[in-house]
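Hi again,

Forgot to attach this to my earlier email, sorry! This is the prediction with adenosine-5'-diphosphate bound. I've pasted everything inline since the attachment limit keeps bouncing my files.
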Amino acid sequence: MKKIAVFPGSFDPITRGHESIIRRALPVFDEIIIALGENPEKKSYFPLANRLKWLGMVFGDEAKVRIVKYSGLTVDFCMRMNAGYILRGLRTSADFEFERTIGLMNKAISPGIETVFFLSAPEYAALSSSVVRDILRNGGDVSKFVPEKISEKIH
Ligand code: ADP
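Structure tokens for the complex follow:
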């Protein structure tokens, strides 16, 4: 059976941290679906269309990557996509505690779906979309923190 992983997130915006997790996971899976979650309760900084466009600019040429937006439960989306794995990145112990709760709940709802964690590369362990947004709001330079292909577009 094809090993399909869903990498869910808001990607508001995509950072080098996300990019690194996806590239490192590519040899492990047959397909990775970058799943942009639409959460009506979470107000995003960038419009959905931009976030999707930037993901496409970074991964559009990668044959094993698909970019799809979704709403609702991540496990339901995995079922629809025939994905057996949820991919997540871990930076800190706070990430771990947060992810553990979600991972256990997802397992309780859908025992057939495994959550797979990749440790953040050390150079990206302090990087988050929210830090990038803060820098942008204050007129700073984020080119070191977002994928090269989008760094000019995002300013
Ligand atoms: P969410 O809204 O679900 O937190 P994000 O877009 O912030 O979505 O993150 C999606 C996934 O990427 C999460 O598993 C998160 O832990 C991981 N991630 C985010 N930034 C990094 C980073 N710098 N290094 C490794 N993983 C990261």
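The mean pLDDT is 97. The pocket of adenosine-5'-diphosphate is lined by residues 8-11, 15, 17-18, 21, 88-89, 91, 95, 120, 124, 127-129 (CB under 6 Å).

That should be everything now.

G.
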